[in-house]
Amino acid sequence: MKKKRIAVIAVLACIVIGASVLVFHRRTPENIVVDGTIECDEISVSSKVPGRIDKLLVDEGTPVKLGDSLVVLESKEIDAKVAQTAAMYESSQSRISQAGTTLKLQQLTYVDQLNQAKAQYDARHEDVHQAEEGLNQAKANFKTQSDTYKRFHGLFAEGVVPEQVEQDRENTYLAAKAQLGIAQSKLEQAQHGLKAADAALQLAKDSNLQVSLRKLEETAAMQQSNAAHGQLQEALALQSETQIAAPVSGYISEKISNAGEMVSPGFPILTIVRANDFKVKVYVDESKFGNLALGRPIKVIIPALGNREVWGKLMRVSQAADFATKRATNEQGTYDVRGLQLVIHLDDDARFRNGMTARVELGEGQM
């Protein structure tokens, strides 16, 4: 009886130990594989201007670099607008040149007329000065001769001097009187001349208004030219939009329009998959992988490339913003659970294509 109890205890102990080992083995981290697809940003290539596709320089699958020419549009309306605005700008430049020439001639004329008027005014002013001096001398001489004549005339009346002497003094007096009249007349003429010269000088100064008008004409011509230049630049900018270049580097994933078709602004012509930005999105059980650290390396297997193993880095763990229930694909023994979205950024490989299957290896409970 005692031996039977010992045997039962031994059996029970073995069962307990076996169960513990099994439990310990099951709690050891597993290597879980989750299937997803390679994704990359797609850029729609469209035109800013309407036109007919003249040349389509790429096809689906063609690799492109930033700035490569993709599409050439034909737009006769834009070409005509460029030609029209170019002619307007050229004409405005001619008007500026003409206005500038007219302004220079007007300035030269003004300076010449002003210098001549100033010279005439200075000359007439000198004439007045000389006439005033002559009049002053004539007045002084007339006074002297007048006083002398009066004195000799009195002496003649008293019989002190002979008649001949008195007549000589009278003639000298009359000559001085005549010279005084001439001097006064010269001064009046000089003053009239000065007034005329002053009027001519003022007229010459007023001609500066013509210079101002010519300046205004030149300014207006320059403003018109600037406006025409702006219209030309706008037309050239529109014309440049008929040459559509690649906005990013990558490869052509879809050709939506063909040569000969009309396209409107904003209508997609091609689709480019951006290079060097491949990532894999997978959904996993939040209870198992909620503590994955951002930036940790993750192995990814690409079946389409002969099960090539590549490495990526965990760049985002989304808390399932849509709160949808996701199935963690290819996980054995799991049920529909609330999932986390993991986004793994892949190292660059020129053979990657949008939509390729990617198998992500995750260790349960890894940090």
Describe the structure.
The protein is rod-shaped, with a radius of gyration of 56 Å. The two termini are 54 Å apart. It has 3 domains: 29-41 and 275-363, Elongation Factor Tu (Ef-tu), domain 3, CATH 2.40.30; 44-73 and 243-274, RNA polymerase II/Efflux pump adaptor protein, barrel-sandwich hybrid domain (OB fold (Dihydrolipoamide Acetyltransferase, E2P), Beta Barrel); 80-234, Orthogonal Bundle (Helix Hairpins), CATH 1.10.287.620. It has 367 residues and is an alpha+beta fold. The model is unreliable at 13-29 and 321-326 (pLDDT under 50). It has helices spanning 2-26, 76-157, 163-206, 208-240, 286-289; strands at 31-39, 42-46, 51-56, 63-64, 69-74, 243-245, 250-255, 262-263, 268-274, 279-285, 297-302, 308-318, 325-326, 337-346, 357-363. The protein contains 5 helices and 15 strands. A 6-stranded antiparallel barrel has the order 1-10-14-12-11-15. A 4-stranded antiparallel beta sheet has the order 2-9-7-4, with no helix packed on it. A 4-stranded antiparallel beta sheet has the order 6-5-3-8, with no helix packed on it.
